[in-house]
């Protein structure tokens, strides 16, 4: 997944346009970010009355495929769904359907109030091909909506009607989106080996273990080694990273230098380990973090 589609679409349609479209674009981007995902199967069709500013009375129809490229996304709170279409001939369209503030978008009918979208009401906004406006008196009906984790949109069917501000002319359209089931969320596991070493020259503690993952990820491994030496608490931190792939556990190893002048020595030490990675399938997802603790026996070794 990636989030380039909103930038591309807005850059194309805002160039050289007046404040009406600029306000619409600002309204769309004011809420939480909706990160784009490619669409597996989708259509967008709309047409307008002769006096409608967006369509000019024409009909438009797009289907995700070789010439038309669709991407869709939702914000983490599932308040709005945004569809981006890049069609042949360097034409872009953006459709944003938003529930009232504090509500999650779901199956049902929504009417845009006679006020600016920033007031927190429901909002329907379709713009593109160099034209946009502040809609007023619009409405939309969501007949099917299936979310996955972190704004993933698995299915979305809706019809909509939009009127530009001060106009009785309207455009009307439908959108239908079907995507594969959402990817599995990233899961990590960590193990710290119960045997390590303490360098006779460097005084560093060497620790190692394994990490597991259910899908590819670059895993950061960090932690702390704590040992009591002659009633002195010796501490040192460590960090490394490993590429993880599903299947067999992946080995990691790292060294912790003592914070003070007392070196790590042979004997028991408490080791905390933290592994974290980004779930590349979900840009809205927080870092996946797993921690563990172990009592490790440090043996003396050269180095």
How would you describe what is shown here?
This protein is mostly beta strands and 303 residues long. The protein has two domains: 5-178, Porin (Beta Barrel), CATH 2.40.160; 188-301, Immunoglobulin-like (Sandwich). It has two helices and 19 strands. The chain has helices at 5-14, 19-29, and strands at 37-38, 41-48, 59-63, 69-74, 80-87, 91-98, 108-111, 123-128, 139-147, 153-162, 171-178, 188-192, 195-199, 205-213, 217-229, 232-244, 250-256, 267-277, 288-301. Strands 12, 13, 14, 15, 16, 17, 18 and 19 form an eight-stranded mixed β-sheet that branches. It is elongated.
List key phrases describing it.
2 domains; eight-stranded mixed beta sheet; 303 residues; 50% strand; mainly beta; 2 helices; Immunoglobulin-like; Porin; disordered N terminus
Q: Which range does the strand content fall in? A: over 45%
Question: How far is it from the N-terminal to the C-terminal residue, by CA?
Answer: 45 Å
Q: What structural class results from the helix and strand content?
A: mainly beta
* CATH architecture level-2 label of the largest domain: Beta Barrel
């Amino acid at each position: 997944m990636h989030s380039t589609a909103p930038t591309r679409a807005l850059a194309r349609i805002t160039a050289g346009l007046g404040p009406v479209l600029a306000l619409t674009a600002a309204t769309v981007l004011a809420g939480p970010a909706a990160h784009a995902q490619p669409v597996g199967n989708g259509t967008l069709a709309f047409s307008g009355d002769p006096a409608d500013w967006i369509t000019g009375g024409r009909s438009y129809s797009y289907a995700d495929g070789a010439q038309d490229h669709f991407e869709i996304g939702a914000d983490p709170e599932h308040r709005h769904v945004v569809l981006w279409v890049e069609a042949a001939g360097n034409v872009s369209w953006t459709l944003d359907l938003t529930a009232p503030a504090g509500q999650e978008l779901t199956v049902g009918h929504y009417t845009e109030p006679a006020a600016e979208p920033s007031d927190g009401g429901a909002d329907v906004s379709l713009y593109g091909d160099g034209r946009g406006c502040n809609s007023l008196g619009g409405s939309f009906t969501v007949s099917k909506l299936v979310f996955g984790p972190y704004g993933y949109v698995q299915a979305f069917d809706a019809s909509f009607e939009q009127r530009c501000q001060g106009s009785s002319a309207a455009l009307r359209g439908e959108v239908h989106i079907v995507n594969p089931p959402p990817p599995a969320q990233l899961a990590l596991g960590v193990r710290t080996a119960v045997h390590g070493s303490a360098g006779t020259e460097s005084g560093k503690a060497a620790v190692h273990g394994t990490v597991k993952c259910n899908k590819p990820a670059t895993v950061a491994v960090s932690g702390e080694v704590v040992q009591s030496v002659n009633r002195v608490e010796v501490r040192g931190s460590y960090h490394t990273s490993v590429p993880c792939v599903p299947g067999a556990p992946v080995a990691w190893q790292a060294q912790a230098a003592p914070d003070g002048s007392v070196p790590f020595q042979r004997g028991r030490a408490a080791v905390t380990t933290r592994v974290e990675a980004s779930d590349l399938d979900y840009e809205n997802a927080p870092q996946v973090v797993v921690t563990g603790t172990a009592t490790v026996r440090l043996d003396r070794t050269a180095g």
